[in-house]
Amino acid sequence: MSQEPLIIAFCCHYCAFTAADLAGTMRQQYPTNTRIVRLPCTGKVDANMLLQAFVDGADGVMVAGCEEGSCHFIQGNLRAIKRVTYAKDLLAETGINPERLEMYHIAASQGPLFAKTSKEFVEKIAGLIEEDKMSLKEETPETSGEKT
Amino acid sequence: MIVAEQKPLDEVYEFAKKYKKVLIMGCGTCVTVCMAGGEKEVGIVANQLRLKAKENGDDFVVDEHTITRQCDKEFFDEETARKIKAADAVVSMACGVGVQYSAEVFPDMLVYPGLNTKFFGTNVEQGVWAERCAGCGECVVGDFGGVCPISRCSKSIMNGPCGGSSDGTCEINPDVDCAWQLIYDRMDKLGKLDELEKNQPIKDWSTARDGGPRTVKRDDVKL
Question: CB-based contacts of B32: which residues, under 8 Å, 6+ apart?
């Protein structure tokens, strides 16, 4: 598969990152488009960190933390949900589809779920990019038509 | 502290896109505390502008800088001056005071406000700020058990409550506490209810905004 789309995955050390490691150990296949950034907890995520990923060229960003109620730091993952929701609003203001950013909950034992989620997210972002390209193509002749 | 909110991105973008290089300048005091215009928020707005410019195919450079206070000349240091002079325009993420003062310090620079300044207030809980002072110029809080009837009563009445007080809330909005209910409860708790019997005289509003722009002068500290 091509390196487009480029996905940045902010993963919690205690769950999703371990799950990604487990996916590898279990020989689970998932697209190589995903670049993992390990965080001590998804509570480390702030809105600008997510925006920065897009500024630096990411097509999609996923934040993967512990399941609700099982955060190593009690409620870091719940704080992350709020920040991701806020960052989605910030993205929408800039004209970027907020669906390019998603939060997932993946436990350390769920290697196959990490592989599946990554694959689905890459496919979803690839689909969104395709949709954007199509809408651009549709808009161009219409606009030129209006002018003439 | 002075409480402010960010302007809608579109409004800032419409200004920023007219220039080649825009400096987003944050303020490290009140607006940092109320999470509207500090270093973090400057980073967010700058990144939003960069993303929007990329989406819209506009070409301008966004720089970021935050100083301790935009309402004091001493904080406009050499680095700040260099960054401001290198930009074509500045979006100040300070309160209205900081925006104006930045423009005063750099009279040749276009300065645009990135925030809407709201009020003097406090952080009543995480993520919630509420008005506590109207800057009327003659503080009367001492007569009302520490609750200000000017800033917290919708009508700013000095001899309340009015007929719009219902179940401890104000008629303008059930989410707004009736200041006079708060005053009554507080004075009751302090055992000073009798003091509320006193008729408050008509307030001299000339010390407030009604008297025009105000200045405070102190010869003992002037150089």
Answer: B26, B38, B39, B66
